[in-house]
Every structure is written in C-alpha cells, then in structure tokens.
C-alpha cells in the first residue's frame, strides 16, 4: 500500500515531503486538500494534523505531520534505497543535524518571511524587506564559507540538510531575492545543483 | 575527557543543552563566553559557531552548535544511560519527531518573540504582544488536547520533545505569559512536572 500525502501543489512544505519521496523512489498517493473550501480546518483533516496545515502523511495506521518530521521518517524507513538522506556514521550524522537545525532556525525563518511578503500575505514595507534580506544574507554568508569547503551542507553528499532548502529557494529564485543567492558563487553553484537534481525535476513535472 | 559547553548562564539555548547533559548524567566542562566583551563575535569563537551565538559544544575533535543538534547528539551518544531522550522504536521515534518539529516550528517561534519582548530586546506594543500571545495560545490548545491523552508530548515518557521546551517555559513562567500555561489544566500539570525534574533542578542550582 502506497504512502499517502495530503496537501496541495504550491505548498513549500508539501514539496519538501514529495522531494524526499522522489529521492527515495517511494510510490505515493497524493490527496489534494481543498484550501479554498477550507477543508484543512475541518474535523476530518484536523484529525490528521491538529494545526490544520498541509501536509499530512499516512503510512498504514501511522499518521504524521510537520514536513521535516515526515522527511526524516521517509529517510529512515527507506534507508536502503535511493539517495542516502541521513548519514549513518554518528559523527557525520551529528554534523548533518547541525545544518538541518540551521535550516530550521535560521534559513527558514528569514526566507519564509520573504516568501510571505512576495506572496502578499504579509504587508512588506521597505524596512521589513530590508530587515529580512539582511537576516537571509547573514545566513548565506555562513553558507558561502561552508560550501567553499564542502559540496553540500553536511559534506560530500546531498542529504536532508540540503533537501529541506529546496522549496523555499525554488520559490525565491523567481523573486528579486534571487540576487542574494546569485551574488555568492558557492551558494549559486549549490542552488543550481540542488534544483537540477532528477528527483526535483520529477517533482516539478508532477501533477496530481 | 569531559565534553565542553561554551555559553553563559541565562541563555535559553545553553540551558537546553545543559538539561540534556543532566538528564544523561554526563559530566561537562563549562566555559563562560563573555558576551559583554563580545567574545562570541571574535574569530576564536566564530570557529566554533560561525553564527557567533551560544552555545558551542566540543566532544574531543568534534565541534557542534545549534542547541537542538547538540541535545540530539548527546541523546544518541549516551543512549544507554540516564533518561531515554530519543525513543528507539521507529514508529514512536517518528511521533516524537513530529512534536520536536512542532516545538521548533511553532512553540519556539511564538514563545521566543514573547521572551524578546519581555527582555526588552524587541519593542513590544500591545498589538505585537496580542499577535504572539494568540500564536502561543493556538499552540497550547493543541498541546492541551495532546496532553489530555498522553502524559508527555511523545507519549508515556519524558523525551527531548519535552526537554526542548523547558528553557522558554521556565523563563515565561516569571512573566505575565504564565497565565496562558496556567489556564490549561493538562498543560499546567505538564509544566509543573517538567520543571520539577531532578535534572532541571540540578541545572537551576548550577553555577559555573
């Protein structure tokens, strides 16, 4: 029985989960949640995710939410197929975990606000844009130094530490925030690399 | 050789790491970072954490930062001693991971802003306070339902999913935000429980 993903196309958190499934060559069933009719705030969906947000995920009797919890489950359950998304060596895993936390605590907080402004969900005056572009630039300065020494954030190979960035970066590359990535050569090369992965391209071609 | 924690007393992220070490009965050496002289922005510290924030952590040659990455390393390395902070069963671990992500994505973002306002780091007009108290209340409503069915967030036992909350809750219990925890009976009981754990009380008595 295929795993089930509840969400809608266009949600960055849904893309995060689907990217992990494509990297792992895992078949899935996609169930579109109708946000316009506020299906995600109704009891049936709230039983899957009490925060009323997409995605939700089911594997048999197990229901999960929070995109990064789902990708970790997928990476562990299908450890022996597809891309090695979580490194097995305890030291390497610890270093990978650092960069996953950086994504969550630093990159996501800065980039998500800029996405919300670009989508018109948050009124973004010039001061707010400048504040969050500064936050994102500070993060990308650290990434530039890291990626000068390592091809990917966790080391030599693409892992969840990189994958978790894909959706927000993909979105921001169609906005003026793109210049913050492009102006840093190692960040630019990393972005080009992770957005041209076969799994990501398959996801871009996916239509439920 | 004891592990080393670089930080200062009063930092919630440092407390998070120390709480995990006390739960695991791991000896540590504490090195105070002088924030007043901006030691955390100097090259020696930036080599430990490129973001120039506490804590940093060393175990022999391994250097880590990001408090939640450090607690996970501690929980895995010392899996067989002290409190079982990461559940071993894959399904239980997946559920634990959901609640750890909720802490990171939802609880921390709402509670940290309220802490910054309380500390005077962020100008907190009534509108901003109301906005973030609403965000925190929405999270605590979900916790109330969860804790009605389970003693701890991940299930029957105290894990990192609970531990990661301790520092922010401890701080907020001395502010007017306390009422948001106190008004929800299962959240209130959980708060009383996690802040009276022997490891947390030892940490409260710690002085470098």
UniProtKB/TrEMBL annotation, chains A, B:
Keyword line: Transferase
Superkingdom, natural source: Eukaryota
Catalysed reaction equations from the record: RX + glutathione = an S-substituted glutathione + a halide anion + H(+)
GO cellular component, one term: cytoplasm
Cross-referenced InterPro entries: Glutathione-S-Trfase_C-like, Glutathione-S-Trfase_C_sf, Glutathione_S-Trfase, Glutathione_S-Trfase_N, GST_C, GST_Phi_C, Thioredoxin-like_sf
PROSITE patterns listed in its UniProt record: GST_CTER, GST_NTER
EC category name: transferase
Domain GST C-terminal, chain residue ranges per copy: 89-208
Keyword Transferase: yes
SUPFAM superfamilies in alphabetical order: GST C-terminal domain-like, Thioredoxin-like
All copies of domain GST N-terminal, residue ranges: 1-82
GO molecular function list: glutathione binding; glutathione transferase activity
A Pfam cross-reference name: GST_C
Listed GO biological process terms: glutathione metabolic process; toxin catabolic process
Enzyme Commission code: 2.5.1.18
Family: Belongs to the GST superfamily. Phi family.
Protein name: glutathione transferase
Organism: Helianthus annuus (Common sunflower)
Lineage summary: Eukaryota, Viridiplantae, Streptophyta, Embryophyta, Tracheophyta
Gene assigned in the entry: ATGSTF2
